Prior knowledge:
Blueprint: H1 12-41
Amino acid sequence: MLWSDPENEPPREMRDAQLMLRRAGVLLALAVVLAMIVLGLH
Length: 42
């Protein structure tokens, strides 16, 4: 690591990937909850 590198700063690609994974996880959780509600109503 170079002395000029920021401390504990992940590369931008990794941060973007983590953001996308977090969003996908939230969307997946919402989809599961909605599916359970819809299946529960039938």
